[in-house]
Amino acid sequence: MACSPHDVYPVLEFEKEEDTIFEVTRDLPVEIDVEDTGSLEGLGEWLATNKYDVVHITGHADIDKEGNPFFWMEDEEGLSVQVTPLQLWEKLRLNMPRLVFLSGCRTGEAPEHVAALSFAHHLVAGHVSTVIGWGLPVSDTGARCAAKTLYFDLSRGEDILNAVLRTRSELFKHYPGDWSLLRLFSDGTPLDVPLVQRGQKKRPKLRALQYAYLVNSQVKVLERGFIGRRRQIQQGLRCLRKDTNKVGLLLHGTGGLGKSCLAGKFCERLKDHVLIIVHGKLNAVTFREALKDGFIRARDDEGLKILEEHEEIPYIIRWLCSSSFQNRPYLIVLDDFEKNMPEAEEGVIEISPEAVPILETLLRYLPYTDKMTQLIITSRYTFTLTSGGVDLVRERLEHIGLTSFRDADERKKVSQLEHIASYPVPEIKQQLIEAGRGNPGLMEALNALVEEMKDAEIDTLLCEAKGKQEEFVQELVLRKLLETQQETFQTFLRRSAVYRLPVQKEGIELVCEGDGLKDWESEAEKAVRLGLMEVNRTRSDYVRYWVTPLIREDIFGDLPEEERRQLHQAAVSYYQSILSASRYGYDPVSGAELIEHALEAGLDDIAIEEGGSRFLPYLRNTLAYKEALAQGHNILSHISEPKKGAQFAKFAFELGWIHHDMGDARQAISYYEQALSIDKAVYGDRHPTVAAMLNNIGGAWYALGNAKKAITYYEQALSIDKAVYGDRHPTVATRLNNIGSAWYALGDSQRAKECFQQAYDIFREFYGDEHPSTRTVKEWLNRV
Q1: Are residues 381 and 432 in the same domain?
Q2: CA-CA distance, 691 to 720, in Å (whole number)?
Q3: Between vectors from CA 165 to CA 164 and to CA 166, what angle results, nearest 5°?
Q4: Would you say residue 720 lies in a domain?
Q5: 102: Cβ–Cβ under 8 A, 6 or more apart, which residues?
Q6: Taking the complete model, does pTM exceed 0.85, yes or no?
Q7: CA-to-CA distance for 734 and 736, rounded, in angstroms?
Q8: DSSP label of 317
Q9: In the predicted model, what is the mean pLDDT of the chain?
Q10: Residue 407: per-residue pLDDT
Q11: Which of 22, 24, 40, 41 is nearest to 32 (CA)?
Q12: Pairing mode of beta strands 130-134, 99-103
């Protein structure tokens, strides 16, 4: 355990000492864990669940004016904390070690001018059997030499006393100014018993990597096995808690470096914050759904009420920043944000138009929440978002770059990887480590592959990977992993790859029917173990499966075209069942997936029906116009021949309405007229649906400033509605009100008044004086 607070000088080069200890014990039968926070709390977490022979603590220590010794440890932001012998003893007694080495200046010194004990003496008095400390300030190089010799000897079977004697001898040879400072304190427990038996074989410790997922999301984090990133964690926590000029973090770096896992660490540290998570594509639909999910979990009725307002999402965000986001702690996580940069692989780092207004509004208005609500973005790329000449991303987010593991961190990572760590051929083992490039994700994939491949195949893989980029090597390794498996397993994974998003087990069952895949769950467990599939079991009622995105598209593309089409059909059935069983209203994310799979399966009519009847109306009602047009045009692009059914008329009508709301009335008329032509063919000329379409065309012409043409369509609609409903019906009153508005625009107040009066009388008769429709027409009457 190394303690090196930011505000204590000189800065400790603890990585060199860690690396030295790992190096000298590499081939010896000793297991080493590293506490990565430098904090007393972190030490306590390790000791609560692990029994150690030795606890090694390195850092700065001192003695205050009253003669009280203390050790400089860190808080979770990396700032200094004075730890007393009693505080350290309270943690050590959770699982008392045989030996404690306090590798800090003056830990073995007792001031002569006061009746005081050294730090080490205090611990022995508290029944720590053996403690090593330094009597005076010691050089960094001397301390490293002592650690190197002591742990080499202990690891090869020397007892504590002889190991300390040889350590002092080595110090005398190489660092004569330090040898006499190394001091051993004991309570009389025998020191001639070795901690390791001579000749004992090295047994690689399986350091299980335990992954979990942030609530209701695809964001994968490490519950156990997280190493390194101490400074990044401390930098991020300082920003999140104290930097009033920032509203969050941008975690950036290439794939596999653990950006999501690091984000998960911040989420752990901010446990009182409710998570609002968007994985991948950020748009009005995905963000609104993430907000809804977060507000439901937080029981935030105010937030849910604001979401129901008929406003565009940027306005909703501004509103939330002066209400819910000020009143409750929320943490917004935008994971894999590079998916909002469609041309990034071509070198064009620009955010998609759907994501820009959301991110810009968050960055502009989150400062008003006074750090109650903050933002974490993970992305492969850094990016800019300029507004008013200011780069909001640079100004409002703390940038934290992740790099590959090196030296001690790389060694720690290797120690977690059973098959690489225990590989019998040293040369190949080193090549495997080098092929991992210090990239945690790539190293884990290589470890899984080593278990499955023969030695000759590993040689071939290493040749293919040499000199290639990390992303290429990672995809290559995963592909090789798949190819080493039996055909049944490969078929299972390729068929499951039809899904772009996590699905319930019913979704996997649908694509595994036949082909001898009844026992698909055992195949899924194996795929998860190999890192080819992921499963989220955050709740008993929330189990989701998905193929790792790195290879999903490629392996699905391996299947024959007809089989892919059939699998898309199965996916359509799955999403239809999900939508029909939804308990919280329409699920637009599932709706979008249903449409996409229907188009890929050649089921255009299903895509059109879902788009026109539910998906586009939902987006229109939530004012997600850009997303609505994008999906509408996507559906149209898959239709090779003109459609004539009522469902397409409804779809065209919705597109027209969306264009109308966006101010493009001329384009709206084009879609309305398509719908009108179909409706007349389906229902006849005198049907209420035809009347409604005529009314909308009239409204579009009115918006274009042609009130006279609008009246011709309004009057056609009025004629049909009177024939269907009679003269005294609210629908008739609505048409009369529209005609009155058009006459008023043309300057004919008399005709306008006649229409308004008729509409007023009908509304009053049906709804009474206080109804909004009655009052609106009354205002028109007063105006004319």
Answers
A1: no
A2: 6
A3: 90
A4: no
A5: 57, 61, 71, 108, 119, 120, 123, 131, 132, 133, 134
A6: no
A7: 5
A8: H
A9: 90
A10: 75
A11: 22
A12: parallel
Give pLDDT tens digits for 250-297: 999 988 888 988 898 888 888 889 999 999 999 999 999 999 999 999
DSSP one-letter code for 191: S
CA distance 34 to 407: 14
245 with 277, same domain: the answer is yes
Where b means 16+ CB within 10 Å and e means fewer, 479-509 reads ebbbebbeeebbbbbbbbbbbbebbeeebbb
Do 159 and 244 lie in one domain? The reply is: no
- Confidence tier at 600 by pLDDT (50, 70, 90): very high
**% pLDDT > 90, the chain:** 67
**Which pLDDT score, from 0 to 100, does residue 211 have?**
56
Task: Classify residue 199 as left (phi > 0), alpha (psi -120 to 50) or beta.
Answer: left
Q: Which domain holds residue 84?
A: 14-186
Contact criterion met (CB below 8 Å) for 567 and 603: no
Q: What is the DSSP string of 506-550?
A: HHHHHHTSSTT-TTHHHHHHHHHHHTSEEEEEEETTEEEEEE-HH
**Cα–Cα dist 176/163, whole Å:** 18
In 616-698, DSSP assigns E strands to none
225 shares a domain with 92: no
CA dihedral 509→514→517→521, nearest 10 degrees, is 20
User: Is 617 a domain residue?
Assistant: no
pLDDT band at 212 (very low <50, low <70, confident <90, very high): low
Same domain, 346 and 281: yes
376: closest CA among 252, 284, 496? 252
Whether 278 and 328 map to the same domain: the answer is yes
- The domain total for the chain is 3
Give whole-number Cα distances, 539 to 212, 257, 330, 542, in Å.
Answer: 11, 27, 21, 5
Q: Which of 527, 607, 545 is nearest to 572 (CA)?
A: 607
- The encoded tokens of residue 511 equal 């694509």
Backbone angles phi, psi at 664, to 5 degrees: -105, 75
Closest CA to 155 of 164, 165, 163: 163
Q: CA torsion sign, 93 to 94 to 99 to 101?
A: negative
pLDDT by residue (tens digit) across 69-86? 999 999 988 899 999 999
Kindly report the CATH number assigned to the domain that includes residue 53.
3.40.50.1460
**Residue from 120, 128, 112 nearest 67 by CA:** 112
Same domain for 132 and 20, yes or no, is yes
Q: How far apart are CA 676 and CA 703, in angstroms?
A: 19
Q: Which amino acid is at 529?
A: R
Angle 48-52-55 from CA coordinates, rounded to 5°: 95
Among candidate residues 765, 761, 215, the one with its CA nearest the CA of residue 777:
761
Q: Is the Cβ–Cβ distance between 214 and 254 less than 8 Å? A: no
